[in-house]
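hiii, so i know i said id send this last week but things got crazy w the move. better late than never?? heres the sequnce for the chain we talked about at the cafe, plus the structure i predicted for it. fair warning i was half asleep when i ran it
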Amino acid sequence: MADLSFEFFPPRTAAGSRTLVKAAKSLLEGRTAWCSVTYGAGGSTRDGTFETVSSLHEAGIDIAPHLSWGRDREEDVLGLIRRYITMGVNRVVALRGDRPSGVGSGWQGHYAEDLVRLIRQRVSAPIEISVAAYPEVHPDAPSAQADLEFLKRKLDAGADTCITQYFYNADAYFDFRDRCEAAGISAPIVAGIMPITNYRNLVRFSDKCGAEIPRWLRHRLADLDGDDEALADLGADVVTGLCQRLLEGDVPGIHFYTLNRAAPTLRVLGNLGP
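okay and structure toks below
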């Protein structure tokens, strides 16, 4: 089995935090894996992210906070990173991050490349940095080649690995990996996987982030909208098959976007076997 990791977002309540810790522990049981915690647009969940990271770390979970620089002051960003390091965190996921709600295209903030470089230049403690990659091209990128060049710049700035946006076409990942190799990118490319549990939410997420739902799959899911059990069965079969192809193709790691739910990911992992 390739390396595994699981993404969560900060819960809004204390009860949600307790449920999240239980979900994380169930996913990690008997497995060598780590978890990440997202960071809202413009740092909107900064405190929630820190508290969630702290709770998971206290539970003995290897944790990596997401972090973006945005328009924050340099010293504020460094201060947050140092708090994480003091806690015992030794990895982060460095992102540009989404623009805050209501801010137009004229918003100017720092990019992931800037954040990676800041960490490498100003943080002396050893820390592993992951960055985002987009097999089906970032929706803001002017072209596939430009998007690839953006990724190379993040890695050249000092990032260690990259985690892809989720996808449902294994060939998109393999083609992307080939293009990365041709561009001189040798860093591990971890495959991001989104279990399928809700048709409408998946369509909304995918249309926003540029992840393609294959036409045949979109129609099958639409037909099952409202039949939760049948949709979950189809989703588990599709995602299991996708993961099997990736594993057969020697993917270095799989990163599950859990949406704070353990059961759908556990079902896929159970299908894949030990």
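btw The chain has ten helices and eight strands. thought thatd interest u
miss u guys!!
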